[in-house]
């Protein structure tokens, strides 16, 4: 007796499965691959967080006491490593974002056109679409944060310093000196700014300016997408309820997200224009 024929999987179903599998592979890659890619075959020890934090502290003390604006060799090695780390993470996150956006579009389109499907399958499509959308938003934030880190890896690396915890030894003394000089830098006519602090202030300004620009661009794009979605919503007939629901939901999501990003852009612009004060807040543990 011949076996019954198996119904072929629709092309869009195979594409959804392929994109879901690719996203599932990229999520752990985002967490694990950047350190390996940044190591460049010679610095695998920095993948250990404790080792990296300790190396940053030692390198920062050496640089502060060097009396030179140029990074010391040990700190330059760390900054170069951290730059490669951010570039790798931004690239993987950007690829994940593209995959999730494509997957989300297919899932929500399938949900909007699911007239012949049961309630359970429609709910599954909506749940999968919501998950893809949430992960896409998270991936976007990861891209933005790592573009910022790649633009100013020195400042990003300084975030590992234990500025908010009491300590002792050379690092604690160095941090106290940094705070003192930052306080004096905020008053006109104070003592000359040490060369290392001049570099730190400049790099911190670039760090926040990068996020200000990135957040502003993304906010503008979301405004445009929101307008386009609401226009499609208005042109869609009332009988296409699920399509209108999807368009309205995403239009509202973009409309709500864009002001939050605009506020982020303004806040980082303010910090970039007064970098010394922003650094003082950071080194005070704020």
Q: What would you say about this model in short?
A:
With 286 residues, this protein is mainly α. The protein is built from nine helices and no strands.
Terminal-residue CA separation: 76 Å
Detail the poorly predicted runs: 1-9
Shape descriptor: elongated
Task: Estimate percent helicity.
Answer: over 70%
Describe the structure.
It is a single chain. The protein has helices at residues 11-39, 49-64, 73-112, 119-151, 153-158, 170-185, 195-235, 241-273, 275-283. With 286 residues, it is mainly α. The longest helix is centred in the C-terminal third of the chain and has 41 residues, at 195-235.
SSE arrangement:
Layout: H1 11-39, H2 49-64, H3 73-112, H4 119-151, H5 153-158, H6 170-185, H7 195-235, H8 241-273, H9 275-283
Summary keywords:
single chain; 286 residues; mainly alpha; elongated; disordered N terminus
